[in-house]
Amino acid sequence: GVSAALVFQQEVQAPSTPLRVVFDGDAVLFSDETDQIFQEQGLEGAVQYERAMEAIPIGEGPLKAFAMHLGKMRKKFGQERSPIRTYLVTARSGRDMGIRAIKTLREWGLPIDEAFFMDGAPKGPILAQIQPHIFFDDGLHNIQGAQNVGVPSAWVP
Fold this sequence. Notes:
157 residues, alpha/beta, Rossmann fold, 16% strand, nucleotide binding
């Protein structure tokens, strides 16, 4: 498949360096398998699923390949000198559902500078602190929250 996202027009003045790219987790970097369990069985069902699947990497999402290419570019510069910084900002809880996400990133060899597990809290405030050049998410409410704080955003359908 081909990675795709709808970029919303917005007047912003993003800082020039380093390039900061923020990814959502489920249905963006990762598959939507846990989202589907959440929709069918609620939060407790999703937590139980994640615990049962903890040793198995999450499936690939639509922007995994793009993130991997960014990771390869970062490695060429080295961690400290890289002009690219990548972030994971996910609605997942770090305590209950973050372990598998981190293990998956490590299994893939995908370097992420910082990961934020929002436990369902709005993403806008942390995005305002990161000031990314682009934020990828599958939730239109998260795109709207990002735009409300002046963050360029792309919807991943």
